[in-house]
Every structure is written in structure tokens, then in C-alpha cells.
UniProtKB/TrEMBL annotation:
Annotated protein name in UniProt: PUA domain-containing protein
Coiled-coil stretches: none
Acidic residues bias spans: 469-479
GO molecular function, one term: pseudouridine synthase activity
Disordered as annotated region, ranges: 24-50, 468-534
Amino acid sequence: MGLEGTGIQNSSVAECTPVILRFQRGPQDAPSTNGSKLLDQPSPVISNSRNPCVMTAADVEKKSKKKKLKASETEGKDLIAPESHTPALDTSKWPLLLKNYHQLNVRTGHYTPIACSSSPLKRNLHDYVRYGVINLDKPANPSSHEVVAWIRRILRVDKTGHSGTLDPKVTGCLIVCVDRATRLVKAQQGAGKEYVAVVRLHSAIESQVKLARAIETLTGALFQRPPLISAVKRQLRIRTIYESKLIEYDEDRHLGIFHVSCEAGTYIRTLCVHLGLVLGVGGHMQELRRVRSGVMGENDAMVTMHDVLDAQFQYDTYKDESYLRRIVRPLEVLLTTYKRIVVKDSSVNAICYGAKFMIPGLLRFADDIDVGEEVVLMTTKGEAIAVAIAQMTTAVMATCDHGVVAKIKRVIMERDTYPRRWGLGPMAQKVKGLVKEGKIGKYGKVNENTPADVSELYGKDEKKALVEEVTEETKDEEEAPKKKHKKEKKEKKEKKKKHKRDADEADVAEAGESPEKKKSKKKKKKSKDTSDLE
């Protein structure tokens, strides 16, 4: 039991023994929130002479309120509880290039974020489509180029490209790149492909096992010549089959279904002919479907031509973006297999203008990067800037403090998406001022108006001038005998020409005199003959 009229429970009283009750009034004797009124009564105070413990009814209520508040706070979902250590960041569910971001090696975490652009999935619709790719299920009969032209017309964009031509009768995965994403077309055309084919054998075979073995033997590097109906030059080539397996065989109709994983440019039609030759019965391709092209397959948001048409209609009629955002995927989807290098925001625009990527702009980088390997340069928001060729290994990036990290192979991001951040240092500003005042040339050349302190920086050093003089002298010394030899050669040639000319003139003179001599000889002969007759 508690003390009657005080609101104090047994547990509170038990803490303070022996108990002395005294009464006092104070500002804390206000009505409690639970509706009890203690204005007309003096509030009891419990005290202990040996272990002082003073508690009013209001204090008890406050304490219970605090406990309830703490309980409600801990139940809240948005509460970050205080911890002694920093919790590990789980980025395994982050989208596209930001996936497993915490696993990248950190060079530095210090940079100035620039409020430009946005995450690939949060771009405005115009940019989202321009930087997008479509995993299209190509219909049978129209050619790949026709399909791509139709999509360009439906989406009303400037450029479209595809990841590798499919024959008109072939269906399946055709990656269509839109506008800026067309810069990745060549990389996708060279990526590996997977097909499911139906082969028709010209006569019966002993068993299904024989067909399965024949299909498995046709793996590795194979010689192929393009089929007669192909539009390319029919030249013998080598293509690699990575894996092939039989799925099903119908003995009655002599039809076999098999799956092939192969290099880009492999002709499955030719492979089916070779399969018939290996079995000794002959065969040809009945049907073909591409199930994977590069990193995108049948199950990766594949859409049909009708889906594209309907999505554009929804946006034009109802301004509903959700359908278009569903069928078009950001181009970063195609770059998820590349090793990543994270770039500071201040370095992005310089790379877009073609600058080499240097160490000061490096934030994070992937493991096991080798020199000459293709990597993707990305922003802290997960946008692809460019595809580059690494000039440093992972170990060198971690230890080196200067140098070229990567050379740009193909820029993806448009220029001036991020602001310029070069030429803003103190020296660059000084040079700009001097150029404006006319004290230095446009390209940093010294002129008559250049101050002495600046000409020391931009003019030639004495040492450099001396070195140049010495090199010029040595060049002159080396060139002197060469010049002499050339002069002698020239004189000899001129003498030969003169001698030849004189000889030609003499021949001409002789040719001119000879008829006169002949005439004189004839005259002499005639006169001699007449004298003899007389």
C-alpha cells in the first residue's frame, strides 16, 4: 500500500527509511497532466536524515513521464540511437554504379560537393531519355535498322543505335541506345552473346546422346565463313564458342533445341550446318532467339515495341512519366561490370573537355585495376562521366601523390553539365589579369610590356638560353661538313650537266654540217668523173 492522498507508491517510500513527513507549498504544486488536482492540498515531502531523499508527487509524475517518453522514442523508426562506434554503411542495395560503394578503396573523403545534375534515376525526363537504353524484344520480320528507326520516331530523339544486328527472322534481346548512350554502342557490339537455337537434322540419328556429344564438341575456337545470305564479305574467320548444351530433342521431327554462349560475330546458322556435318546427316537452322546481349538478358526489364508506343502515348496524353521511366533504363546499367573510379565534382567538367584524369581529383577506386584496363569514371552521385584506360594500378593509386590515373577513351557526359573549376588558382588569376592588361601574350608569351618579375617566370632562363646556344653551335658544327659535302655534290652534278649539254650541242652542229660536206664531196666526185671522161 502507498501513502493515502499522496500518490506515492510503496517502492518510493521503501527507498527512504526512516521516514519523516513534512508539508510545504511551492510552484511545483500545479495540476498534473493526468487530471489530478493538488492545488488545495500541501504536497508531502519525504526526507531521510541519514540518506536524504526528497520527492514530491509532481516529481514522481515527471519521472514516470520521462520513462514513458523514453519508451516511445525507442519504438520510433526514424530514431538514430547514440553509439560508441560508427555503424558500417551497407550499400549493397544502392542502385547501378553506387552498388557496394563502401567496398571501394578510399584515397580521400575531402571534396566540395557541387549542386549540379542528379542521380541517374532522378534525372528530369528529357535527360533521362537522352541518357537511356532500352532492352527491346525484337519482333520477327523487320530488320534491326528498321526497328531502331521506328523507336527514334516514336521517342522523338536525334540518335539511336543498337548493340549488334539481328537477322530479320531472328527475335530476342536488342539493346537500343538513345542519344548520348550511343557512345557505348561499339562496346556493346563487341560484348558476348547468348542464343537459343532450333536445329533441324535432315535424317534420323541413333540417339539423343549422340547429338548432345556433337554439340559439346563444337566449343572453343572454330573456323567460320559467313552464310550466303549474309551481307558481309564471306571471309574465313575464327570465333569462340564458350559453352553449348542440348536442351531438348524431338526424334519424330528431327528437331533439337540447344543453348549457346559465344563471342560477338558468331554465326549460329553456320554452327547448325557444321553440327549436321559432324553427325553425318546434314542439318540447318530452323529458328533462333537471342537471350542475352552483353550484360542485359531476357529477364532484365525487356520490353516490346508496343510497350514503347504505349509509354510515349501515356506521357503525351496524360503527362504520366512512370511508363517511360519503366521502359527506358539509365545507360549506367551497361557499365556495372567495369571497375570504378570515383572523381571529385570539381574535376568532372575538365574530363568532359578531354583532360587526362590526374591524382588530385581521385576520391575512391576499385581493387585489382591493371595498367591498360578499361575503367569507368563516375561522380559521387553515381553518374558515368567517361570510359577510360587506366595508367596506374590500384597499389600505385593508393601510394602515389601525383601523375596520370587514366586517359580518356570515350566521354559520355555532356560538357558543362558541371561548372568549370580550372584556372581558378592565384597564379592563373594573375596571368588572366596580365593578359587582360596586355602585359603578356594570349598564350603566355613575353612582350615589351611584360614586367621584370613576370618575365623571369615566363621568359627564358639564363641556363636554358645557354643550353640552347650550345646546342645550336653543336648543330652548326655537325651541319657544316654535311653542307660542304652537299655543295660538292651539287657542283659535280652541274659539271656533268654542262658536259652533257656541250656534247649534245656538238652532235647537233655535226648533224647540221654533214649535208654540206656530202654536197662538196659529191661535187668533187662529179668534177673528177668529168675530167676522166675528157
